[in-house]
Design goal:
5 strands, five-stranded antiparallel β-sheet, WYL domain-containing protein, alpha+beta
Amino acid sequence: MKPYEINNMIIDDEFDGEEFVTTDITHNQKDYSITFKKADLEIINTWIFENGSSLPANLSDTIIESIREDVKKKI
């Protein structure tokens, strides 16, 4: 079992000349949003949602790689 759950995934085709994939996940009972460039799945930003605010988040490289593989399979 994975330490996170993908709740939603949005593919923005040709937003501002580039394509992005935004993935919403739950990890350790907290909600996160991660945006990747669609072409190479480079991370653009990562946010955690707490107390009605969004803050920059740090996730381990292991979790990021696992999420990246899941996103790659879905797109």
